Amino acid sequence: MSKHLADHRTASEGGRVKHFLRLARDRSDAAWRAVWQRPRERDEGNRRVLEYVRIERERQV
After folding, report:
1. How far apart are CA 5 and CA 22, in angstroms?
2. pLDDT at position 42, please?
3. Rounded to whole angstroms, how far apart are CA atoms 2 and 59?
4. pLDDT tens-digit profile of 8-45?
5. Mean pLDDT, to the nearest integer, of 33-59?
6. Which residue among 6, 9, 20, 30 has the highest number of C-beta atoms inside a 10 angstrom radius?
């Protein structure tokens, strides 16, 4: 009994890996710097937690 027609795969040329590596090598530092160094927007809920953490740190020192 032979394999079904759908079971005969052709060999891959690694197209997904090629495109991934091209993108990984082609990234510019300016684009990444803009993403990582942009100012964060903070809401008041987080500010309260930060104040509690600051108070706890002062108590431990």
Report:
1. 33
2. 64
3. 75
4. 888 788 888 888 888 777 766 766 677 677 777 766 66
5. 78
6. 20
Q: Does residue 61 have a pLDDT over 70?
A: no
Terminal alpha carbon distance of the chain: 76
- Overall size of the chain counted in residues: 61
- Which tokens hold the place of 53? 């953490």
Tokens of 17: 């890996």
